[in-house]
Every structure is written in C-alpha cells, then in structure tokens.
C-alpha cells in the first residue's frame, strides 16, 4: 500500500499556488492524483471521462489525414493522451500556463500519462492560452498566424466559472472570432465545461461557428456513488 498522502510539487503563480498531490483513496483502493489552485480543486484522476471525450469527440469531427492540434491546458494529461490515440495526429501542441505542470510531466510523476512529454509529436509550451488565442501572432511566434486543424480547450471550470478574471474576454464574440481565425476552414473548436450546457454560450458560439452542439457526458462518481456530468461544446469554423 502507498503512503496515504504525498505532495509531489507546488509553485506560486499569479493566479495562486498550484500543487500536485497523490493520496491513497480507501474507497477506490488506489492512488488518486489531484491538482489544486490554492484551495480549489482543478482536476482529479478520479474523473477523466469528460477530458478524454473532449479529445475523442473533437477529433472525430475534424477532417484531414495529418492533423496539427492545439490543446489549451495540460493538467494531468488525459486529454493529450487521448488525442494521441488518433492515428491522424501529426503534431500536438499543448499550451500550459504553469511551467510547474510541464515539469510534472517531464519528470513522469503521473503514471497514467507517463511518457507524454517524450512523444515526438508533442510540444509542451509554457504560455497563456488566452493571450495567444486572441492575438494575431497566435500559438507559434515563429510562424505568426499559423492555423491548426483543431483547438481543444480544457482550462476554466465553465464559461461562467473562470479560474481567473483575465480569461473573460475570450468568452465573447471578439475572443471566439480571434480563436476561429487560428483554425483552418472546417477546423474544430471543442471545449470542456463542468457545468450543464448554457444556452447563452451555445448561441454565442453560433455567431462565430457552424454545426454547434453541446454534448452532456455522464460518468460514474465514486465519491457520491451516483452519476455526474460535464459538457463538451463542439463547433466548426465555416
């Protein structure tokens, strides 16, 4: 049996202290890995279905045989790991705000996603996704305005529950139009949300994108011994 609790890493950031901890869950009889921002839980290895569905559903609707994909937010790495299962991936660029999170993966501290940083298709970039997504330079300073086949976003809890107030401008018509300009025509924008679908946000997506939908993703919750749900928003650049 593992030690019941271990803090694996932490680092101050402008948004708060980000930390990674491992604890042995007596109910699950397994190690659980959790990311916290100050006292707020950001991600847990107990709940990864929706994060993986973000990649699967987003890439399923993305055309092309050699895909260049952006992921906003690295976290525990489940979205990136699922994306790499797609045989059409050529490059996968993960934009992560905290260099501490990138370091966790470079040191393979997370057993389920070990080896992610070493994959030749993967680039882990320490940058602010929201700044890059709304700037004409985009995600690659060496190729300003470079476009991608898909953008998969998993950072904020929802369009209404943000990790930081500076993210708010992204969830506007102007912010989404700027992000759309970094997609190829027919490219996919997909986003995870911990809340139920919000009609107002779906309508906002429809002012920028086509073929917009919000899929509810249900999964078993071992903490409540019931079912919980998240939402995946999907949209296509015209």
Notes on the structure:
This protein is α/β, with parallel strands linked by helices and 238 residues long. The protein contains six helices and eleven strands. It comes from Mycobacterium parascrofulaceum ATCC BAA-614. Keywords: Polyamine biosynthesis. One of its GO terms (biological process) is polyamine biosynthetic process.
Primary descriptors:
Rossmann fold, 238 residues, four-stranded antiparallel sheet, 38% strand, 2 domains, alpha/beta, seven-stranded mixed sheet
In short:
InterPro entries: SAM-dependent_MTases_sf. With 238 residues, the protein is α/β, with parallel strands linked by helices.
Overall 3D form: globular
Let me know the largest β-sheet: 7 strands, mixed
Low-confidence stretches: none
Amino- and carboxy-terminal Cα gap: 53 Å
Q: Which architecture of the largest domain does the CATH hierarchy give at level 2?
A: 3-Layer(aba) Sandwich
Total DSSP helices = 6
Return Rg in Å: 17 Å
- Major sheet: order of its strands? 7-6-5-8-9-11-10
Q: Class by helix and strand content?
A: alpha/beta
CATH topology (fold) name of the largest domain: Rossmann fold
Overall domain count: 2
Q: Which H/E pattern describes the elements?
A: EEEEHEHEHEHEHEHEE
Compute the number of strand runs. Answer: 11
What is the CATH domain class of the largest domain?
Alpha Beta
What value does the average pLDDT take? Answer: 94
- Summarize the amount of helix as a percent range: 10-25%
So, the CATH homologous superfamily of the largest domain? Answer: Vaccinia Virus protein VP39
The amount of beta strand, in percent, is: 35-45%
């Amino acid at each position: 049996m593992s030690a019941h609790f271990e803090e694996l890493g932490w680092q101050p950031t402008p948004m708060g202290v980000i930390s990674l901890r491992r604890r042995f869950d007596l109910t699950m009889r397994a190690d659980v890995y959790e990311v916290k921002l100050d006292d707020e839980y950001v991600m847990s290895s107990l709940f990864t279905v929706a994060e993986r569905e973000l990649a699967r559903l987003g890439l399923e609707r993305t055309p092309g045989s050699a895909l260049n994909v952006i992921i906003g937010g690295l976290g525990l790495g489940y979205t990136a790991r699922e994306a790499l299962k797609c045989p059409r991936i050529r490059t996968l660029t993960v934009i992560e705000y905290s260099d501490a999170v990138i370091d966790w993966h470079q040191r393979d501290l997370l057993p389920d996603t070990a080896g992610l940083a070493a994959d030749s298709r993967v680039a882990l970039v320490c940058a602010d996704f929201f700044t890059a997504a709304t700037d004409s330079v985009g995600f690659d300073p060496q190729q300003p305005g470079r476009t991608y086949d898909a953008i998969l976003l998993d950072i904020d809890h929802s369009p209404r529950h943000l990790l930081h107030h500076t993210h708010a401008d992204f969830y506007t018509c102007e912010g989404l139009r700027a992000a759309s300009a970094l997609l190829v025509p027919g490219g996919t924008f997909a986003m995870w949300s911990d809340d139920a679908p919000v009609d107002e946000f779906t309508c906002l997506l429809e002012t920028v994108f086509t073929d917009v939908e919000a899929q509810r993703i249900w999964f078993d919750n071992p903490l409540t011994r019931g079912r919980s749900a998240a939402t995946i928003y999907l949209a296509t650049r015209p």
